[in-house]
């Protein structure tokens, strides 16, 4: 099935002319990323030469995707914007709220019971507002998007950082917070800083044990967790064309771990093959017709250093499999050095669990290559020494691999097949362990491995590798095993070696699925009721955040100075807390509980300056809030790295924290803070981080002149009476400063919508003279036209009346005709008034600061 075909057709039709227009302005060869960016400029955005890393530019993405854990907040915000239907194709996917415990079927039904309230909320909101709904069990958002919605050259946003997965189909797919999704669903422009461009040239061809995952594991090692910040990574070169479409998806997916805005590949035969293989032959045909616009210009790839800000080259033929970790995804270790590293660092050598799947690595290719190892284990009489789990990415993949016998192979090796969902990847894992703090090792084919992420245990050493390497390690149960060179002893005491994995990019018998798990929304959702129970502890309607009072911030207390890594998992932990993602006040009770307090090196233990006592972060902050004392959080580099979850910005806002001051921010988190009306500031001199003391009172003394490109001044008043005054940077543009002033971007949007709706739904002519609000020309035209028409209609009536003046009958007739004429005049006047009201509405809409252009879902309008 092809969704939103009209939108796709219109997009490919207009693509050549849009790119031609950009070429005229830019006047140099274009990268693929630039082509897609220019092709998606918002209708009111001028086409210019934009400054990479500096210019804020408005775009019109083609679609929006939301997963259950972030969709709750996104949709609660959308509901309060007062718009009847989404204006671009949008979907919701239920995948994060499914707890992995006993295996697919039981886990799924238990989770539906446990989170039923949230799933039915999401289902009814989707139904009401025209959003496609993918039920629990349908699959992980990014796999479902790749299989159904991704299209070469497209631009989409999603409320999940791994939305970038769709780069595997040549899209620019970008992870955002819910408030950004609300903008796009409301038909408003979506703002992004024009990104920098990193080019990665791939040569050679993968072979043996190496897979696509190793490309991104290697890249993560090169660029580190912040090396991609503010940049698009564009892969090209002969090696790129040898990678399967889903393999490309894997590479783009884990690009979130280097902080990249997104990653992408040029359209090629592998993508066309994937489109055809997933029932979208017509999309491949449309893309084929404009294929020169769906990849970078030849000149760019011939001399990439002239067109990209940074260029790297990786030879796939010599690339080794890698294992990254523990605790950070950018600690990249080639397999040949891994055993030594394990010993040298004293990491727990025994592997307890191997987990394959997740949105990153759960394609047919991944599963069949891993299954080839599982089959060898069974055939060679090896039983897996570690626990082993498999999470298929979608019901389509699960159904097909089951049909083709692969799940059975895993089970024979001792593996447990989990539901098609995020499960252990996001800490939704009821791990079978008796000590939740025991040091131990696990290895996954997922993408993140921050402390506590998978099982809540801070001493779990989580490593990330390809599904093949993960499977081999699960069989061996030992991290010093190198599957490329070492042997294992089987149940008969014979030393056996695993052969290189083999698999299929596509199912030889094609994909199949009985029920993919999709629910289309109602055509007219106006009568659909969305209910939130008053006493719900899972869902809570949002109240608007307070507007700025126009004054400087004086006397703020330091809530916490976070030391080292402070990811969104540290700010708003997932796992068991996922259940409160729709209830701001409840989830606020986990705020910053994972952050390390600089002063005592403890987590969730900070000084309350009002009492001098130490306590949990959320409780301390609530005490400040109750006392009406504003607070500030100070942090290190890449603050807010990781997830797109806007809870990490909304919770501090809800609890009364006013400022986040750090050495640097991760992109999505910085935007989320701005959107929620917080002040996101960075040190001009990083060394000033050391000047802040635990008992400080802190002021911002020039907030009243908050302006773009103008530093702010902060004063730290220390306990001993001394003080430090420092300068801090911000990246707010004029529009974003308005968000701050209004209390949040949503407040501003609601205000603008109310202005438009308030004026345009005002009663026409009779009750409120339209002429009062209409522009001058409209008023003139409308005033004259009815009179003219009335005169015209009355003329013949007067003639007839004069001729038959003698006859009573005639008089009667005249009266009748005259009456008719008057009626017709009245009708004409009514029509004219209607027209006038329409014109007035148009005028009001134009006059509103931000246009809310009606856009039909499924149709792209530029
Ligand atoms: C993740 O991988 O961390 C998540 C869970 O998918 C998040 C979204 C979330 O926090 O809900 C992400 O990557 O954006
Ligand atoms: Fe789900 Fe994990 Fe992918 Fe996030 S990274 S979307 S939690 S599978």
Descriptive overview:
- The chain contains 26 helices and 30 strands.
- With 862 residues, it is an alpha/beta fold.
- The strands form 8 sheets. A 7-stranded mixed barrel has the order 22-25-26-27-30-29-28. Strands 6-5-2-3-4-21 form a 6-stranded mixed β-sheet, with helices on both faces. Strands 16-15-14-17-18 form a 5-stranded parallel β-sheet, covered by helices on one side.
- Helix 9 links the parallel strand 9 (231-236) and strand 10.
- The longest helix is centred in the last third of the chain and has 40 residues, at 808-847.
- The chain is globular, with a radius of gyration of 30 Å.
- The site of alpha-methylisocitric acid (MIC) has 14 residues, from helix 3.
- Iron/sulfur cluster binds next to loops.
Structural Rg: 30 Å
The percent range for helix content is 25-40%
Distance between the termini: 26 Å
Bound molecules: alpha-methylisocitric acid, iron/sulfur cluster
Contiguous helical run count: 26
Structural class: alpha/beta
Strand count:
30
Task: Give, in spatial order, the strands making up the sheet with the most strands.
Answer: 22-25-26-27-30-29-28
**Major sheet:** 7 strands, mixed, barrel
- Low-pLDDT runs: 761-808, 824-862
From the spread of the alpha carbons, the general shape counts as: globular
Mean pLDDT: 90
Report strand %: 15-25%
